[in-house]
Amino acid sequence: MIPQSFIQDLLNRVDIVDVVGKYVQLKKGGANFMGLCPFHNEKSPSFTVSPTKQFYHCFGCGAHGSAIGFLMEYSGQSYPDAVRELAQSVGMTVPEERDRLPPAQRAEQQARSLALTDAMTRATEFYRRQLRGAQQAIQYLKGRGLTGEIAAQFGLGYAPDDWQGLEAVFGSYRDDALAGPLVEAGLLIENAERRDADGKPRRYDRFRDRIMFPIRNTKGQVIGFGGRVLGQGEPKYLNSPETPLFSKGTELYGLFEARHAIRETGYVLVVEGYMDVVALAQLGFANAVATLGTACTAVHVQKLLRQTDAVVFSFDGDSAGRRAARRALEACLPHVADNKTIRFLFLPSEHDPDSYVREEGTEAFAAQVRDAMPLSRFLLQVVTEEQDLRQPEGRARAQYEARPLLQAMPAGGLRLQIVRELAEATGTTPAEIEAVCGLRSDPARAGRFAQPRPRAKRQAPTGLEQRLLQLLMGYPHFAARLDEDSRALLLDAEQPQAEVLAHLLEACGEVQGEVNFAAFSEQLAQSPYAEIYANVRTAVLREEIEEEPAGLEFDAAVTKLLAEPLRRELDGLETAVTNGVADEAAKARMRWLVGEINRRRRLG
Fold first, then answer.
1. Per-residue confidence at 382, pLDDT binned at 50, 70, 90?
2. Assuming Cys at both sites, which of 135, 151, 400, 514 could form a disulfide with 156, CB separation 3.0 to 4.6 Å?
3. Helix (H, G, I), strand (E, B) or coil at 71
4. How far from 351 is each of 227, 321, 361, 450, CA to CA, in Å?
């Protein structure tokens, strides 16, 4: 858990203009910077970056956030990863509960990581230079229909047929200081059983006579390689081993290169091989990525759904492809949601995506993608296709197969629909499916299938209440302008804004020293009122108001709002007078209230 105080300190130190400017061409426009939005296609700039608020906002698609949010949205990084990258850029160390390493050991780890990253970068450049003179490799790539432009885009290279080719870049493999990072990065293989005359283990290149596919992380750094053999040989594809930089179960080939196309097309296409990704990009489907010789994992799915709300998995139609699709289905289930779309595309067994597009054309392949099988249909097919649903045993077996899959899904509309279809297919009721599959065993898991939990009434503030929230979000120190009596009246339980205003005033009171708009917004985004604050934040971003006029407007809004509880008290006293039950003190109070309300109206 990263402390909120650290987030505020971090966002006070970074400059969002510098962060966004690395990825978007910005031009000064008044107090802000403008550019073309990286999150949707546009011809005239509607994307603005505010150096005073330290926030970005697109008036076209509505994307907005702090420097942390921009890195998450643009690169698909997780929240902790985005925080760590920003912290590293300004020389800060992220404090975390699990971070118990002594400073010296932590510095040693960072130096080691930098050495591995440097080794991968230099190796990438070496392989790219080698490709220019490797005619056999060039002819192979041309034969697959690839151009030099697409090869450059993906950084393709060639590992020469040489046991010690990388020595030309890094120096003698016998030097432990030089060779150590190469072994750790998976570029060299160390054979301890075979040693040189001086007793040093023999070291040699892992990749030889192969087309090299650099694997990048979400920052664009090379963390591993996939090597494709040119002729006959096994394995056809050789991947980097697991290293401190690279884990096959968490990385996706081509995700860095595909991120813009994924946003433009609205979906990501998951295929099975490096060459499929590159060839599809050449053929107009630049939104493709691939798993790295391993089954799709839950981490893969999380990464994909951070990039887009729609995922299409493409598999061969043979038995191996169906098994791979089943594993992908299981990885997806914990992360399905009613606003996400996951589909499964099965091509004819004689085709992979590359060959299908070349033979049938891009329109035919696009149609296949559009008609891909929804996750719900594939799940029902998996549990029923081998069962004889005419027999009780077959129907019971289908329910048995469905149980772990349904239990893996979060409760929601999609699971409810699948339960209903399974009930219809097996001649039972949805309630019986829920009981048989254990969906009601835990009241917390029953969710929307059980009695809905009561929700506190949170009325969205309007008018003056909304304006008061906007001014407080823009200038948190305005909260100090309220005395105790004013706070009590504003937080009257009958006021529609009381609940959220109380939370905001408390958050304002916790602000220590100078805090920028972005840091304060990040704090409010973690609260139960995040949705209301998001609407307030959008309004704040649309205007530029100086502190002095903002303060005057704040005081006037408070004055008008304080008149409302006084008005209710006056109504009650007038009723008492009408009914003949008011004493002289009540009548005097009523006269004072009339004058006070009129005074506040004039001030407002």
1. very high
2. 151
3. helix
4. 22, 12, 13, 47
